[in-house]
Write a structure and sequence with these properties.
single chain, 2 helices, eight-stranded mixed sheet
Length: 136
């Protein structure tokens, strides 16, 4: 089976470096899937589920923005933030969403509004992943 190399790094650590059969992630304009043989690209990432399929299973993370680059059979994901779904709690996610929604209703500067909207998108993604029964 054809494979592609997948590297996932954050500003503080190298999280994953593995051979994969398929990778799915949130681009800024919607979900993107990458299989072996994909053409080179560079894309800004959004907030949501990062799923890395391997022959022995899959890894699922909550992704908080960044960039992804496909080049020469290697997909590199430079994540602004990354959380394993095994560490997500539905109760904590619901509280975070309630706080983000409350902040979004407040008046403020454009930067404050943009920050609040980002927190909302991330909180919605966290709730969806925490509540999903399957981790795929």
């Amino acid at each position: 089976m054809a494979q592609l190399r997948c590297n996932v790094v954050t500003p503080t650590e190298s999280v994953l470096d593995t051979e994969s059969t398929y990778v799915e992630f949130p681009a800024w304009d919607g979900q993107k899937g990458v299989a072996p043989g994909a053409a080179p690209f560079l894309v800004r990432l959004g907030e949501g589920r990062l799923r890395i399929e391997r022959s022995g299973g899959s890894d699922v993370f909550l992704l908080d923005g960044g960039f992804a680059q496909m080049n020469g059979g290697t997909l590199t994901i430079l994540a602004d933030g990354l959380t394993s779904v095994t560490g997500l709690s539905a109760g904590d996610a619901d509280k975070e969403l309630a706080a983000a929604n409350a902040d979004a209703t407040k008046r403020g500067t454009m930067d404050a509004r943009s920050n609040a909207e980002h927190r909302q998108r991330l909180a919605y993604a966290r709730v969806a992943l925490a509540r999903s029964g399957s981790r795929r």
